[in-house]
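Hi,

I'm pasting everything inline rather than attaching a file, because the server keeps stripping attachments. The sequence lines come first, and each chain or strand is labelled.
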Amino acid sequence: MKFGGTSVGKPQRMQEVAKLITRDEESKIVVLSALSGTTNALVEISESLAGGDRFVAKEQIDELHAHYRNFINELLTETSAIEKAEAVLNEHFEFLSIILKISFSQSLNKDILAQGELLSTKLFSIYLDEIKVDHVLLPALDFMTIDSYDEPQVGTIKVKLVQLLNKHRDTNIFITQGYISRNARGEVDNLKRGGSDYSASLIAAAINASVCEIWTDIDGMHNNDPRVVEKTKAIEQLSFEEAAELAYFGAKILHPASIWPAQFFNVPVRLLNTLEPDARGTLITEKAGSVGVKAVAAKDGITAIKIKSSRMLLAYGFLRKVFEVFEKYRTSIDMITTSEVAVSVTIDDDVHLPEICKELEAFGTVEIDTNHTIVSIVGNEIAETKDVMKRSLMPLNLYL
Ligand code: ADP
Ligand code: ASP
Ligand code: MG
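And the predicted assembly:
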């Protein structure tokens, strides 16, 4: 069971989470995000430090500390529990104060970003102790590892996690941090923003869970982004492929990479609403359930790269050479169109764009177009479904 930022963002919500995880006797691993707003606040603190603005960083740290002091006073009742929570806050905010004196680095940045999940899980654990719920807090940094390409190491995660679980055979409820991991150098790292979903799916895959439940603030995957479009509705069933496409192409409810571990190990995923725990939500399995358009998603910040070359005419191996450039810079291509004299691709990560362009220029003229959006219409057997293109493009007057 994974609970996102809003599901633990208020003391009352955290108390509801405790009720949800104790509704049945089943063994479970509970993955928590940071309280809503915390990771954003930590990003701002890090940016202030990176910019050399220690005074502003100090103010931001104090503001966050005050927020947490109020939080624990509302969450907990017993003096001993409040004292324990104060000690946790002191430990983590002292760390943040110390970093004010250290010179900024990328690894320090990752340490700062990890504080949110460390805090939420420790405070939740103190609350569970207060209400006498037997549980064990599992440090994600002891089992969640990524390799030198930032890819999670499923095999290692499984071995380490199972070893830890075996130490507590009598325990039914385990609590752990989403998002944070250890990298190939053994440093604290993370699975990128929104990464707690990915943690949950990796954990579910590692222990071959019966289900991976993603609890959030909405009743499942909607057929469009509810922040942008009115009157969207929840989708009852999606295939892994459909959910993965929607997540990758912009449906913020899921981290872009969060579906593959569950899909690979065939663990069903359920998207559920903490505010409405009995709503059906969305079930994601191998089966699509129906044919046709299920949902639309959009992804901004896309860069299109067009390579024009008469050398492509009747040549073979041209595309391979183009793709090798992207492979070299570990930049994934989202979309592609080609004709006999041009190939256009899109990427969402332009960190290596200058180097990529330089190498592509050896093949022809290169044109770059930034700030595009990919709109994805996702569903099962769309290509065979009558009229989908017409109905999709008509509102845009693009259907000729
Ligand atoms: P959490 O903090 O629980 O991880 P997120 O904010 O990451 O929650 O994801 C849930 C939010 O995703 C919803 O509140 C909603 O605004 C947004 N969202 C964007 N696209 C969709 C979609 N297609 N279906 C459902 N929610 C979506
Ligand atoms: N707390 C992290 C973030 O805000 C991870 C997550 O919430 O999934 O990005
Ligand atoms: Mg999220």
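The radius of gyration is 23 Å.

If the labels don't parse on your end, tell me and I'll reformat.
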